[in-house]
Specification:
Layout: H1 9-16, H2 20-27, H3 31-38, H4 46-56
């Protein structure tokens, strides 16, 4: 997407209208896991990241990872 800005995982989640709990339930993960990703403590693996991008309706290249 030309001229798009890169955003954080948290921004992508909130822009898509999801809470941490929503994402944890949908992804079948703990809230702590999703929170750790958003706070740059851990990183989702490739398949988890691609799934998040689909869920958030964001391009893989638009989301910043640590």
């Amino acid at each position: 997407m030309e001229g798009s800005k890169k955003i954080t995982l948290k921004a992508a989640r909130t822009n898509a209208g999801f809470t941490l709990e929503d994402v944890a339930i949908i992804m079948m993960l703990s809230i702590n896991t999703v929170s750790s990703w958003e706070n740059n403590k851990t990183c989702p693996d490739t398949s988890q990241f691609e799934r998040l991008c689909r869920l958030y309706r964001a391009a893989v290249g638009d989301i910043i990872l640590p």
